[in-house]
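Work Package 4 report. The design task specified in the project plan requires that, given a folded chain encoded as structure tokens, an amino acid be chosen for each position. We show below one input record used in the internal validation round.
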């Protein structure tokens, strides 16, 4: 082999690492949008204890205050799909920063319950934008070989935000009552400022650029993340063929028809899979455990605000460390095995927690059984570990992968809308449900839902690891002639476009 050939071979790994680093940086920046959601979840679990005391709220008001953010985020979730197709994925991130910055300031300066709810509305819209745009952008900018790893970043940053919220609650807990919780909420504006500053370094999604007919710009971005110029051209051809668009762009009404009104059997199966995945992610009680963790530990026998918040911080650390492990498993083990094992762990953890809480609740405070309290704490830690290793990160990764390009933004927005509705319902009914069927009975109910979830995942979710986004439809193809012809057309378009690009 010539010296030039040897030099070229030696340079290839370095080039590949450089390109992965570029995609890595883009994913990190976009995922900063997820910190705002995580921070709000984490800080509100502690702040709600002090808000209730300071404003003299009832349990129902606390439920609404805690859970209403998910309902408000529906506005941002639906708007994000349209906005990201209109002005681009990159600039949609600005909406996240602007809304949550304003919402944090309003909540931090609130003196009445009504003002707090206004701040929740504004922040909720920003959260809705963030939960859609972060994984959507990351999936579209990532190479197939590292897409699972990179697309799990939003979930990692949500958990990091939750941990920061717990730490903030603990740090400001000793402040005067009327000051502490306002600082907890107001300091949430800081991640928004950081996100706005980092935006200048983000390129636009190459798939959005193709949808807008900006092929040269799309090719320039792809060349920065593809291993070779030839691979960049091939991926450009795939995206153009899968988009099925011309210079006039996308007809929004047609997108709604293709996804909701009259979808093909393949698209219908994709949509049902996405909605089911997001429904079960929330219906298995994740928000109830995270948002009301101080109450769970209190029910288990842990007394005192400092001890409750310290136990909650320990849970946050566990949750964050485990989700970091899942990042490295998504592209090695696959989405489906992680999801099934994770859901099985959730079932066992919920049964343990429900059993422990039931035993503790049946005994007076002065005769509580220590091992039952220990079972509750261990089950909570096992739950957040099981959830964070699979069910948490896989939902965002999987949904951002499976939709065809023409309907991807809207499809992902619908999935997240389902996620936020169920999250809001779970958050706003936990205290009332616990009062009706006991707190132990509530978690037995969640365990039953988790069993149904496992069956759904086993039956309906194929593996997507290592596949190009443009090839996902074949995994959900029902085998009908109606669905086969577009796939053949896509393959033909790919060959034609690639040939014309190389000539």
């Amino acid at each position: 082999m010539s010296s030039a050939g040897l030099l070229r071979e030696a340079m290839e790994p370095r080039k590949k690492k450089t390109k992965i680093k570029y995609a890595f940086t883009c994913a990190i920046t976009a995922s900063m949008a997820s910190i705002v959601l995580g921070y709000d979840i984490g800080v509100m679990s502690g702040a709600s204890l002090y808000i209730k005391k300071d404003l003299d709220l009832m349990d129902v008001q606390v439920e609404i205050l805690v859970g209403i953010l998910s309902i408000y985020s529906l506005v941002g979730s639906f708007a994000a799909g349209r906005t990201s197709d209109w002005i681009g994925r990159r600039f949609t991130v600005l909406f996240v920063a602007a809304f949550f910055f304003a919402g944090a300031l309003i909540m931090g300066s609130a003196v009445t319950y009504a003002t707090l709810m206004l701040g929740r509305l504004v922040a909720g819209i920003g959260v809705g934008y963030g939960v859609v745009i972060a994984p959507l952008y990351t999936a579209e900018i990532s190479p197939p070989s590292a897409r699972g790893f990179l697309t799990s970043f939003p979930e990692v940053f949500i958990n990091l935000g939750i941990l920061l919220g717990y730490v903030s609650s603990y740090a400001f807990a000793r402040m005067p009552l009327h000051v502490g919780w306002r600082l907890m909420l107001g300091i949430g504006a800081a991640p928004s400022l950081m996100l706005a500053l980092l935006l200048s370094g983000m390129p636009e999604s190459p798939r959005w650029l193709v949808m807008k007919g900006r092929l040269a710009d799309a090719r320039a971005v792809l060349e920065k993340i593809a291993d070779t110029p030839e691979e960049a051209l091939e991926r450009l051809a795939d995206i153009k063929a899968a988009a099925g668009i011309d210079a006039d762009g996308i007809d929004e009404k047609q997108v709604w028809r293709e996804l909701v009104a009259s979808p093909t059997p393949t698209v219908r199966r994709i949509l049902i899979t996405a909605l089911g995945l997001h429904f079960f992610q929330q219906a298995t009680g994740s928000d109830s455990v995270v948002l009301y963790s101080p109450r769970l530990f209190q029910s288990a026998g842990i007394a005192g605000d400092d001890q409750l918040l310290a136990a909650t911080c320990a849970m946050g650390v566990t949750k964050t460390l485990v989700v970091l492990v899942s990042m490295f498993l998504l592209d090695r083990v696959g989405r489906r095995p992680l999801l099934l094992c994770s859901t099985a762990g959730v079932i066992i953890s919920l049964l343990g927690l429900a059993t422990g809480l039931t035993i503790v609740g049946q005994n007076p405070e002065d005769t509580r059984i220590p091992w039952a309290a220990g079972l509750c704490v261990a089950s909570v830690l096992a739950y957040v570990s099981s959830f964070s290793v699979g069910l948490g990160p896989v939902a965002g990764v999987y949904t951002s992968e499976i939709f065809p390009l023409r309907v991807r933004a809207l499809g992902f927005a619908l999935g997240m809308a389902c996620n936020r509705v169920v999250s809001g319902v779970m958050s706003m009914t936990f205290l009332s449900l616990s009062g009706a069927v006991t707190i132990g009975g509530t978690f037995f109910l969640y365990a039953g839902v988790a069993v149904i979830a496992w069956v759904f995942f086993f039956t309906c979710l194929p593996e997507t690891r290592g596949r190009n986004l443009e090839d996902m439809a074949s995994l959900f193809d029902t085998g009908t002639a109606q669905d086969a012809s577009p796939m053949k057309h896509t393959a033909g378009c790919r060959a034609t476009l690639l040939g014309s690009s190389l000539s």
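The radius of gyration is 23 Å. Validation will be extended to a larger panel in the next phase.
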